[in-house]
């Protein structure tokens, strides 16, 4: 994709992502959030990130979308852990996009992905994972046979 077209797409994404993030934050602060709208916004954010080739933002938005799908179908509540994970994810998306604008390499939002993964109960995302297995002992030298 030519650089000038990519810059135009990124500029449009910057405006669109801000609208979605602002609306999701407002919904979380509402007494009666419209979870269908929140889900759609996460879905749109995911698609927009994919369109401008921002896989890190797409991955976070995908987990947000999954969480909001569960919330809107009453399969999962928005408890304190989920609300904190959503706010962290939105903060990381904003930081990532700001890093693109500054020309600095944006940080990967690994902590947001992990926090959302914990809320979703994804394997390998437990807060206290088992330690990695110990390294095998070094081989024992055998005495040379005569």
Task: Give the arrangement of secondary structure elements.
Elements: H1 3-28, H2 35-51, H3 55-72, H4 80-102, H5 110-120
Question: What is the gist of this entry?
Answer:
The chain has helices spanning 3-28, 35-51, 55-72, 80-102, 110-120. The protein is an all-alpha fold and 146 residues long.
Provide a descriptive summary of the structure in words:
By secondary structure, the protein is mainly alpha-helical. It has a single domain, classed as Four Helix Bundle (Hemerythrin (Met), subunit A) (Up-down Bundle). Helices cover 65% and strands 0% of the residues. The longest helix has 26 residues, at 3-28. It is globular, with a radius of gyration of 21 Å.
Structural class: mainly alpha
Kindly state the percentage of residues in helix.
55-70%
Strand content: under 5%
- Quick check: average pLDDT? 85
Task: Spell out the helices and strands N to C.
Answer: HHHHH
**Tally of DSSP helical segments:** 5
Task: Indicate the radius of gyration in whole angstroms.
Answer: 21 Å
Distance between the termini: 70 Å
Biggest sheet, open or closed, and with what strands and sense?
none
Regions with little confidence, pLDDT below 50 for 5+ residues: 127-145
Going by CATH, what is the homologous superfamily?
A: HPT domain
Task: Provide the CATH architecture.
Answer: Up-down Bundle
Q: Could you tell me the number of beta strands?
A: 0
CATH topology: Four Helix Bundle (Hemerythrin (Met), subunit A)
Any idea of the CATH class? Mainly Alpha
Number of domains: 1
Characterize the overall form. Answer: globular
